[in-house]
Write a structure and sequence with these properties.
single chain, 456 residues, alpha/beta, TIM Barrel, 2 domains, five-stranded parallel sheet, two-stranded antiparallel sheet, 9 strands, 8% strand
Amino acid sequence: VNASYTIYPSAIAPEQNPLVEGWDPLKAAVKLAHERGMELHAWVWIFAAANQRHNAVLDQPADYLGPVLSKNPDWAILDNEKRVFHKRTRKAFLDPANPEVRDYLTKLLEEIASNYEVDGIQLDYIRYPFQDPKAGHTFGYGKAAREQFQALTGVDPIEIEPKDQNLWRQWTDFRIKQIDTLVKSVSQMLRQKRSELIISAAVFPMPREDRLQKIQQNWEDWASRGEIDLMVPMTYALETEELQKLAQPWLTKSSISSALVLPGIRLLNLPDIVAVDQIQLLRDLPAPGYALFAVENLNDNLRGILTRTQGQEEPTTEVQVPYRQPFLAAAERYQALQQEWSFMLANNQIVVGEPDLSDWGQQADTLSLLLNRLAEKPSMMSLLSAQLSMSSFRSRFQTWMFGQSVEQPYQVQVWDNRLEAIQRLLRYGERTLQNRPLAGRETATNEVDITEGLDP
């Protein structure tokens, strides 16, 4: 769903994208993806309902509100100067406070989950339009929002300014709650309808308070409450150092450990060598994975580099997706670490003396045994054993690696980051173990993660 147009023939949305009328691209895409052992996640613009750039492509007037808002003008939100379109992004948004809007969006997502064998749904534009309260530009003044807030406080929010600190905080909290309410209800509906469906969200990696003031996107709480499986922060940067600044804080934040955080890399205008550098950076950080945006920018040269360095075009073994098989992914990643350590020890490239070497080896083998047992037969008991072993192992790791960290500090940090990533997979697996059945190693499937962060 893009700017209110569905790519498929819908009984809920008023209009299919006219560029694909007469066929069902979503049905075809699901079939093609599954034939190739890939997952397909439906990408849905939630509150962004019209786009003047799209209007030009479709030969519509610049001020066309799109198929939904043109039929329901009261569903729109306005800025504080009563404009519908954002003056910079040239997009128009639905009012999250309007119960008719929430009902429409819920039915639309239910239709996708019911009628198509998609493997997941990604929520994009799950926020208010960008604002700058300090510069006097704010959004959210839909008919329903103004009426509800005035009923709660006795004040029309369009009369409030940021200098009215108490009322402004209430107005900000009111808007945050509207987004949170939809995320919660949609998550519950989708999980009841299809428990195996993966729910992801494309989100902004701005500092929390700044983000709440500017777009009212409270995604840490969605993650901590288990409403979203995959958070895809749009950590888009042309420089690898900037990517690290954007991504690292969210990869070490314990409050969102019940969801997997997949930082995004935007390939547009990014030299191939920088793209590879950014991928390696995320592999060195405690990230369970990453998202590439977008497929159209994945050129032949970069695809060739990834094939040579990240895997094979035709895998000889089954590829495990961490969000489907978190315990199996944890065991396999730890096994890869052990193989690296064994190789380096055999070549005298690790500085660890006795008795630390023996202690490290014994605990490493114990952890491996427990992770493999958990992957074979997931249970809360085996998970607890693996988690306790991992915590004990990590508490001693820096002591064992003291000599190595003097010689190779970055290498030791990367190893610790990979242990952290494995630990996060265990935490994510704990939530999924409680909420939905997990397959063991013997029923793992050949799935490929093609999640993309969007919302440019």
